[in-house]
Amino acid sequence: MAFQPIVDLSAVEVWGYEALVRGENGESAHTVLAQVNDETRYSFDQAARVTAIEAAGPLFAGRDMRLSINFMPNAVYEPKACIQKSLAAAKRVEFPHRNLMFEFTENERMVDPAHVARIVEAYRKFGFWTALDDFGAGYAGLGLLARLQPDLIKIDMELIRDIHASQAKQTVVAGIVNIARELDVRVLAEGIENEAELGVLRAAGINLFQGYYFAKPGFMTLPQVAFIAEKPIEAALAAR
Predict the structure, then answer these.
(1) Which of these, 47, 126, 190, 232, is most buried using a 10 Å CB contact count?
(2) 104 or 67: which carries more pLDDT confidence?
(3) pLDDT in tens, 19-43
(4) How far apart are CA 18 and CA 4, in angstroms?
C-alpha cells in the first residue's frame, strides 16, 4: 500500500490518508489491478482492504485520522461478511473502525446499483464513512449521488485540472458544492497540482483536498504535509 494525505484546510490539518494499492516492489495500481479478473475480484477486494487496515494500524497509532479504502462495486459479496473481516483487521491492529472510510468509484458501471446501495447502508449502520470517488466523470453522476447519499464525494480531477482557467468548470463545481451542501454531503477536491487551482476551489467553499500539490503517495509510509504542522495555511501559501 501507498498512502496519500487528505488535507482539511479549514482546520489546517491532515484529515486522513487514502490507501492506494501497490505491488510488493512499489509497482503501480494499474499494474496490480490488471491482474485481477472475475474469478479473483472478490478475494482481491478482501485482501486489499485487510492489507490497508493492517498496514495503517501502526502508522496511525495515536492519531485521530480517517483511512480511506477503495472497494470494487462489482465485486459480488455479502456486505456483512466483508464488514466482519474489516472489523477483525481493525481490532488486530487497534485501529478505531469509525475512522474507516470506504470509497467506490463511478468510473466502473455498476452491474447492480441496488446491491451497492445495500452495501452503503450496511457500512453506515456499522459507523463507517462512505465516499463516492471520481464524481462527475462516471456513468451515473447525480442519479447515483441521490440514490446512495454517501458521507463524502470526491470531485474528479478532470473537473479540477486548470479550473482557474475555465469558467465552465467553475460553474459545474459550484453547482456540485451547492447540491452537496443541501444533501449534507462533504466535498473533497482531488488531484490538486498548483496554487491557482487551490485558490478557486477554496473560494467555492471546499475545505478537503488531496493531490501532488500537498504530497505524493508514500509507499508503506505516511508522507507529511510540512507547512500544515509548521504555520497557518495563509502564511504558508504566501511563502511558496
Answers:
(1) 190
(2) 67
(3) 999 998 889 999 998 998 888 888 8
(4) 5
What is the average pLDDT value for the chain, to the nearest integer?
Answer: 87
**Residue tagged 504566501 (cell numbers):** 238
* Count of other CB atoms within 10 angstroms of residue 158: 12
Look up the pTM and report it: 0.89
Per-residue DSSP letter, 171: H
CA–CA distance from 216 to each of 17, 58, 106, 178, 221 (Å)?
11, 20, 23, 29, 11
* 3-class DSSP state of 101: strand
Alpha carbon distance 117, 137 (integer Å): 20
**How many residues does the structure list for the chain?**
240
Q: Count CB-CB contacts under 10 A for residue 209.
A: 24
The rounded distance, in Å, linking the Cα atoms of 132 and 145 is 8
Task: Tell me the three cell numbers of residue 31.
Answer: 499494474
Q: What is the DSSP letter of 165?
A: G
* Sequence-ordered list of residues with C-beta below 8 angstroms from that of 28, at least 6 positions apart, any chain: 22
